[in-house]
Structure formats: structure tokens, C-alpha cells
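Design request, C-alpha cells follow.
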């Protein structure tokens, strides 16, 4: 028996399992399991990535100055208060590493994104799960769960995997009500899918206890490249920059993300397509007896009669080459999370679920 052991908490982590991408024996698959943009990145983004190929012998920028300037210009934010990471996952992990340790508590919601718990445990802190109100973040429950040990409060707004969001007044109440020694982290991975929503930037702007995180993995179609960013008070930026790897982002990743954020026409097109196809998909599934909560994201959380039916439907969809996401690990066993794909994929998945329900009736 080895005497070499990891830090306390590490072995409590259930390794993160990403969305499946293949089905044995099926070649023509549609992947609707990871909330990726079915249209991919914009042309300008791919071109910038290609051009970066000529610079591969050079180390990348350590301060991400050009990318931060571009993000700042597009969002009207101070580039000095922006930090970039290897996906927003890295920012979430860095926050845990910097602000939570043994004896500290990290709050996340009942059906919150898995990385909050993983990041807390990796830092030796105690994750605290707070009930939601019918799959919606419950601000009062979170405030009640806060103690003097609370160091971080994570909410995704809109949330994954529920797709729901809470309003600005509720978020402000949360920022006002958490202990003085705690940071509120607003994870805006899906913020771009909500027309006119700033992801919490304005709130983060004026306070010293709010951090907003964003990603290039969703609407920008760059999940494969791994770029995210955070907007935080200067004191937090200073701390995160002390612990992040100096070369955490590669030259192609920086170049592509910069081109991507400058191409807001692509973002608008993708948001409009998503809004239209999401409404269509939700309506057709509801007609097949598979309802969902109103989603503000690029996926819907489809509700089946029970866990058995959800599992059976998942198997049926797989047999049809359609890969969606079972969410039992998020304590939602009677649901399947379905990414809004392109029109053909939406039609295919809607048709297959109709067949499944028709056959099962
Ligand atoms: C709520 C939420 N936050 C953060 C992330 C992480 O995104 P990334 O690390 O790709 O930026 C995801 C990805 O699925 C997510 O759903």
C-alpha cells in the first residue's frame, strides 16, 4: 500500500466526464452533448488561427494585451481588469486555488456546473450545495447557507444544465448579502445567448466582491481552442496573475480569440439562429409530451416521465446517431440535455424523440 497520498479532498473528486462524441457502430452521428456552436467559429477567426501558424516558434504573449484590449473595446470594459485563461474553467480553478482552502466553504447551486465542486475540492475547501427553486437559482437559500467560512459563491447565469437564469435585481441582492469576506462569481458562459445581457459586467464594474467569467467555447465556437476570461476587481486580477501560468494561452488561441471577439456580426447571427431553433425545438418536443423550462442558453433540458424513460430515450437517440447529454450526475435523472444544433440536427432529434414517444405510447 503506497504511503504517497494526494492532498485531502482530491480523492473525493469524481473526474469530470465531457459530452460523448461517438457511438459504437454508428458513423453518421450528430453531437448535441457539449453545447457547442453547430456553426463553428467565424471565417475571420479561422483565418487568424491559420496565420498564427507562422509564429509557432515564438513564445506567446504573457500579458494577453491584444486580446484583453479587444475584449475591453467590444464590451466597454477596462482591459486592466480582465484576465484570460485556458477556458473559463481555468479562471474558476484559479479562483478556488487563490481564495479557498481547508476549512473554507465554496457555495454552488444544486444543479450547478460540475467544475465548482471539483475546483473547491482540489483546493482542499468544502463545497456546499444549495437547493434551487424548481431548477432556478434561489438567492435566499444561498444567503441562508452563507457562513463566516464562505469564501466563494458560484452561480452560472444562465445556468448549465438547467438553462434558466435569474434577474439583475436578484444578482445584486446576492452580491449585497454575501459575507464581506466572500467573492461572488457570476459564470457567464452562456451570456451571449441572451439578447442585451451583459453577463453581470456592470455589477462587477462597480464592486470589489464580484467576478464575472466568460468563455470563447460556446457562441464563439472555439471549444477546441480553450480560451476564457474573467472581469474582476483590480485586487483579484492581481492575485490571479500571480498564480496563473505565464504562458497559459498559446499564440493561435490568443490570435483566434482576438479575431473572434472583434467579429460581433457572427455572434449576432449565431444568437439569432439559436433563439429561433431553440423555440422551434422546445415547442415540437413539448408537442411530443417532452416539456422543458424556458431556456436562455443554447440547449434545452428535456423532461421525461421518469429516469427510466429518459435513459431509454437516450439509448434510442444513440441508435439513431444522435448524442445528447444524460444529466443524472447533476441529479436530474429524468432529463436529457439537448444542445440546439443546426436546423437539420434539430429536425433529426425532434423527429427521433417523436418516434420514441409515439412508440412508447
Ligand atoms: C456554466 C459553464 N461554465 C463554464 C464552462 C467552461 O467552459 P470553458 O472552460 O470551455 O470556457 C462551461 C462549459 O460547459 C459551462 O457550462
Amino acid at each position: 500500500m503506497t504511503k504517497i497520498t494526494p492532498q485531502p479532498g482530491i480523492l473525493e473528486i469524481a473526474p469530470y466526464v465531457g459530452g460523448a462524441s461517438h457511438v459504437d457502430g454508428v458513423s453518421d452521428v450528430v453531437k448535441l452533448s457539449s453545447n457547442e456552436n453547430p456553426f463553428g467559429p467565424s471565417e475571420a477567426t479561422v483565418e487568424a488561427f491559420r496565420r498564427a501558424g507562422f509564429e509557432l516558434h515564438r513564445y506567446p504573449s504573457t500579458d494577453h494585451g491584444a486580446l484583453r484590449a479587444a475584449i475591453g473595446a467590444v464590451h466597454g470594459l477596462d482591459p486592466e481588469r480582465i484576465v484570460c485563461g485556458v477556458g473559463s474553467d481555468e479562471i474558476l480553478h484559479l479562483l478556488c486555488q487563490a481564495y479557498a482552502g481547508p476549512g473554507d466553504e465554496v457555495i454552488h447551486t444544486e444543479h450547478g456546473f460540475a467544475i465548482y465542486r471539483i475546483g473547491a475540492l482540489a483546493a482542499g475547501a468544502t463545497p456546499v450545495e444549495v437547493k434551487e427553486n424548481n431548477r432556478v437559482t434561489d438567492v435566499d437559500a444561498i444567503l441562508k447557507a452563507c457562513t463566516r467560512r464562505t469564501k466563494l459563491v458560484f452561480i452560472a447565469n444562465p445556468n448549465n444544465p438547467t438553462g434558466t437564469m435569474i434577474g439583475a435585481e436578484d444578482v445584486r441582492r446576492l452580491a449585497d448579502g454575501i459575507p464581506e469576506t466572500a467573492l461572488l462569481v457570476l459564470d457567464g458562459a452562456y451570456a451571449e445567448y441572451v439578447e442585451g445581457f451583459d453577463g453581470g459586467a456592470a455589477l462587477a464594474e462597480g464592486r470589489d466582491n464580484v467576478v464575472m467569467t466568460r468563455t470563447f467555447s460556446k457562441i464563439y465556437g472555439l471549444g477546441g481552442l480553450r480560451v476564457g476570461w474573467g472581469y474582476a476587481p483590480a485586487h483579484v486580477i492581481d492575485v490571479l496573475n500571480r498564480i496563473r501560468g505565464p504562458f497559459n494561452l498559446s499564440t493561435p488561441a490568443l490570435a483566434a480569440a482576438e479575431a473572434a471577439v472583434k467579429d460581433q456580426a457572427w455572434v449576432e447571427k449565431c444568437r439569432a439562429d439559436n433563439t429561433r431553433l431553440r423555440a422551434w425545438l422546445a415547442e415540437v418536443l413539448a408537442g411530443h409530451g417532452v416539456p422543458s423550462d424556458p431556456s436562455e442558453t443554447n440547449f434545452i433540458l428535456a423532461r421525461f416521465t421518469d429516469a427510466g424513460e429518459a435513459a431509454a430515450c437516450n439509448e434510442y437517440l444513440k441508435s439513431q446517431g444522435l448524442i445528447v447529454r444524460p444529466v443524472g450526475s447533476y441529479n436530474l435523472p429524468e432529463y436529457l440535455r439537448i444542445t440546439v444544433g443546426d436546423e437539420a440536427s434539430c429536425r433529426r432529434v425532434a423527429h427521433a424523440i417523436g418516434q420514441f414517444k409515439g412508440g412508447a405510447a
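Comment from the thread starter after seeing the answer: thanks! The pocket of pyridoxal-5'-phosphate is lined by residues 35, 87-89, 113, 156, 160, 187, 189, 215, 217, 223, 228 (CB under 6 Å).
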